[in-house]
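Hey, can you fold this one?
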Amino acid sequence: MYSFDYQRASDAQGAVKTLAADTDAKFLAGGQSLLAAMKLRLAQPSTLVDVARIPDLKTVAVEGKVVKIGAAVRHADVAENAQVREALPALAHLAGIIGDRQVRALGTLGGSLANNDPAADYPAAVLALNATVVTDRRRIAADAFFAGMYETALAPDELIVAVEFPVPERAAYEKFRNPASQFALTGVFVAKFADGVRVAVTGAASSVFRATALEQALTSNFTPAAARAVKIAADDLNNDLHASAEYRAHLIPVLAARALEKAAA
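Sure. Predicted structure:
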């Protein structure tokens, strides 16, 4: 580690103002990724602006058919929130299996999305549910938010303040975990809406993506059998010491089928 300044922001505007004035400053939420990167000197911010205690970023509300979650809400709080569990149980389940107990107690929704780790769980929910990422200056549709490995549409000084999740007719998330990190070796989130099905895959490629072949099959026939019948190409999927691209391609329809079984239950 090395020396840096620390500031605790009281509101979003003040936090953004600090980053706009210092291009080497970084937002700090749960710190589960940033602090680890700093210890390895992969990141060396001049100032950490702590946004985890901003009151407006810590709220959870269900407004009609939309679940709105503040960016600083921790994973454990999403998993245990009665409103989320009632309106969107698939999202509560996903939050409850992120990392381990310590990570869930500190990690935040906004921090996970801004970091966009290729194997993170929340990006799959955001993309499959067609959520809207609300920042201090605009609203970003899920399909436009994820730009690549650790890349998003966010400007360097742009702060996520909340995420709005539409409530689907049915939804479920299933992942095959890396036993050491608990990250998704491959994870699949399936969501059925009145106008069709969205399927998002995390952990299998350089960034979360929509599985269009599964979406087409499940829009016509929303059953586990239809999911298992889909063949996923291994092209562009991750091939590393944890699993081959072919294995991940095999997992995607299998996990989609399991998610459908869970959604039906």
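The first strand starts at residue 5 and ends at 8. Let me know if you want another pass with a different chain boundary.
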